[in-house]
Design a protein that fits this description.
Blueprint (H helix, E strand, L loop, with lengths): L1 H16 L58 H15 L3 H12 L20 H7 L14 H14 L6 H8 L3 H17 L12 E8 L10 H13 L3 H16 L7 H7 L6 H7 L14 H15 L2 H8 L3 H14 L2 E8 L9 E3 L5 E3 L2 E5 L4 H12 L21 H11 L9 H4 L4 E2 L5 E5 L4 E5 L2 E4 L10 E3 L9 E4 L4
Parallel strand pairs: 3-5
Antiparallel strand pairs: 1-2, 4-5, 6-11, 7-8, 7-11, 8-9, 9-10
């Protein structure tokens, strides 16, 4: 049985572990006498998921927010037993706990404290730990650095957020980002199928919100219906929420009065939300999915600004990035408050909006300019689209597993970045791991796109430029490089026809 569980755990690692150049190495077994159900001494006195801890009720070790009080090393079978046991105790799919464990700390290998202050095995914020953490292993301390306390407390928190009935909403409560929900569910789906189930009975298709809004009474006849619809879609897609709808409306009112107060030339160059050419170059999105990006199109303009705001982490930071003037930020936020009415939220399956077409240059090869690639004028449309897609994530950081739970991610790993470029070209529907890219398409180099892949790393050469997550002077993520490929040890493939 131990060999079987170890094999299943290794399969879980392989399922997403080859998604990047990092390889998971199981921690050595320390001799912990693990109970068959996951806890060293068995499960006892499970606290309620409906009532948080009373203030001051937890026994905490000195320095608990900074470091572990002791070290843990669990075998694969002990880890799986722990996920299953905690999930069973709180009616949470074990595969979701495994997926969160992977995303948050890489199975206990990166436990923080994070830049935000999250700590431990499942990366709890200290305030959340005080409310929902617990001494599940009975050693006298509620310790977020303990795998037992951490995993069981995560199950308790998910249950408190309604995870037994709606696991997607519960995961969103754990981390308020739809990309995070998508990534956790994608990993959980993989884990569940390898562990002898389908993820524990939850919906495997990530969901995104759809907003239907009505402005404040004084503004109901002043915001054009087609503009409001674009603000709803853009704010929902880029996780700006209801407040984002009204902020986009406020920007459109200030910049062009919803297109009525802007000249034709300005509309063509900047669009009704007043985006600078540099903003279009970096963030352009085909908001209405008609296959083209038109700056004068309200849908494309709203989606592009929403993507810019999303990339900055908050409404205020995004609006300031759009216009670096304190008065402008205050005016937008004040207008947003005046416009704000109410919105109804529903959910649909996640979908991805197409990105803008790339920039073009004469000659047979792409040209690198200030970190972005210009596509050859004579390149096929799919190649230009691949370059455009890559440009759109060329400033994102490297994140292990990024780009595999959903196309939109806060960062990408090597195979996630290659997959995203292929997706932009219409040559891929689902992200592939490095190992899977070894059998993608056809063997040998391509005329326009060549993929280099092995079990632990992948990169591509597109129209003469290398698209790779390694080799950058800053080492920060997917970037274009003029240096040639390094083919030794890689399988060489290309998309059919390219």
């Amino acid at each position: 049985m131990r060999k079987l569980l170890a094999g299943v755990f290794l399969a879980l690692v392989i399922c997403v572990g080859t998604a990047s150049g990092d390889v998971y190495v199981a921690l050595p077994v320390s001799g912990i006498a693990g109970d068959a159900m996951g806890l060293p001494g068995g499960v006892a006195n499970i606290p309620s998921a409906s009532i948080p801890n009373a203030s001051g009720s937890l026994q905490l070790a000195a320095g608990w927010m900074q470091h572990a009080i002791k070290q843990y090393a669990l075998s694969p079978s002990q880890m799986r037993a722990l996920w299953v046991s905690a999930g069973s105790a709180y009616a949470i799919p074990w595969s979701v706990l495994a997926a969160i464990n992977k995303v948050e700390s890489n199975f206990g290998q990166n436990m923080g404290p994070s830049s935000a202050g999250a700590v431990g095995w499942m990366q709890f914020m200290p305030d959340t730990w005080l409310r929902w953490g617990y001494d599940f292993d009975g050693d006298g301390y509620a310790d977020p650095w303990s795998p037992y306390d951490g995993v069981y407390s995560a199950a308790r928190y998910l249950a408190a957020a309604g995870g037994a009935k709606d696991i997607s909403r519960a995961i969103f409560s754990y981390n308020h980002a739809h990309w995070y929900v998508a990534e956790v569910l994608a990993n959980a789906s993989c884990y569940g199928s390898l562990g002898g189930g389908t993820g524990g009975g939850f919906a495997l298709t990530p969901q995104m919100p759809v907003l239907a809004c009505e402005p404040a009474p004084a503004w109901r006849d002043r915001i054009p219906a087609d503009y409001l619809a674009t603000f709803e879609d853009a704010a929902a897609r880029y996780e700006l929420g209801q407040r984002g709808v009204w902020a986009l409306a406020a920007v459109a009112r200030l910049e062009s009065n919803f297109g009525r107060g802007m000249g034709a030339k300005q509309m063509r160059e900047r669009g009704p939300l007043g985006l600078e050419p540099s903003e279009w170059n970096q963030y352009a999105v085909d908001g209405d999915e008609d296959g083209h990006v038109h700056r004068a199109d309200p849908a494309d303009s709203a989606a592009t600004l929403a993507r810019l705001i999303w990339s900055k982490g908050s409404l205020r930071a995004g609006i300031f990035a759009h216009n670096q003037a304190a008065w402008y930020v205050q005016a937008v936020l004040a207008d947003a408050e005046a416009l704000e009415g109410h919105c109804k939220t529903s959910y649909v399956d996640w979908r991805v909006a197409p990105l803008a077409s790339g920039f073009e240059t004469p000659g047979p090869s792409a040209v690198l300019d200030n970190g972005f690639a210009s596509a050859p004028e004579d390149a096929p449309a799919a190649v230009k689209a691949a370059i455009s897609a890559a440009n759109s994530i060329a400033t994102t950081p490297y994140i292990w597993g990024g780009g595999h739970g959903s196309w939109y991610a806060s960062g990408y790993d090597c195979s996630g970045a290659v997959s995203f470029a292929l997706y932009g070209a219409g040559l891929l529907d689902t992200p592939l791991t490095s190992g899977s890219l070894e059998s993608y398409g056809e063997p040998g180099p391509g005329r326009w796109i060549t993929i280099y892949a092995n079990a632990t790393h992948a990169y591509a050469v597109i129209a003469g430029l290398r698209w790779d997550t390694v080799g950058d002077a800053e080492g920060t993520g997917p970037r274009w490089h003029i240096e040639p490929p390094y083919p030794e040890g890689f399988v060489v493939r290309h998309p059919t026809g390219y």
